[in-house]
Every structure is written in C-alpha cells, then in structure tokens.
Automatic annotation (TrEMBL):
<dbReference type="InterPro" id="IPR002514">
    <property type="entry name" value="Transposase_8"/>
</dbReference>
<dbReference type="GO" id="GO:0043565">
    <property type="term" value="F:sequence-specific DNA binding"/>
</dbReference>
<protein>
    <submittedName>
        <fullName>Transposase</fullName>
    </submittedName>
</protein>
<dbReference type="GO" id="GO:0006313">
    <property type="term" value="P:DNA transposition"/>
</dbReference>
<dbReference type="GO" id="GO:0004803">
    <property type="term" value="F:transposase activity"/>
</dbReference>
<dbReference type="InterPro" id="IPR010921">
    <property type="entry name" value="Trp_repressor/repl_initiator"/>
</dbReference>
<dbReference type="Pfam" id="PF01527">
    <property type="entry name" value="HTH_Tnp_1"/>
</dbReference>
Length: 89
C-alpha cells in the first residue's frame, strides 16, 4: 500500500535536504527512498517560482456592479439607435 504524503510535509523534507542535511539520513528518518526524495526535489525546484507569481484576483461585487451598469447603459443606447433607424457601427 502506497503512503500518501501531505504537500507541506514534502516541502519540509525537500527544504531540509536543500539546507544541507544528509539526504540518506533524511530519508532514513522519514522512511523515504532517496529516489522519491530526488523526484520531489526536482518538482520543487521546477515549480518554486510559481510562488512569486501574482494571483489573478476575481473582481469584487462593486467592480462587477459598475461594469454591469455600463453594459446596461450601452444596451439601452444601442436599442434607442435601432429604434430610431440608425445603423450601428
């Protein structure tokens, strides 16, 4: 049966190895094969830059309400133009 490792535990173990602790000793203390440690380390090093990327935030309710009002106004203006026989471009 395979062990499920918590991502925080994986990160902690990888960081211990990166700070200079002997990998064999580290793996022994966590009952982990060195090959697995090196896979985690590789994954960690390939993806650690993602931590510093800005998260795209969702617009808040006030921003959505303002955008909604602008769109309603635009729809109203276009409807008036159509009803008056003008072309839209």
């Amino acid at each position: 049966m395979r062990r499920k490792w918590d991502p925080r535990v994986k990160a902690k173990i990888v960081l211990e190895g990166l700070t200079g602790r002997c990998v064999n000793e580290l793996c022994r203390s966590h009952e982990l094969r060195p090959g697995q440690y090196y896979k985690w380390r590789e994954h960690f090093l390939k993806n650690c830059h993602l931590l510093f990327e800005r998260e795209k935030r969702a617009p808040d309710k006030a921003e959505l309400a303002i955008e909604n009002e602008k769109l309603k106004r635009l729809v109203g203006e276009l409807t008036l133009e159509l009803n008056n026989g003008r072309s839209i471009r």
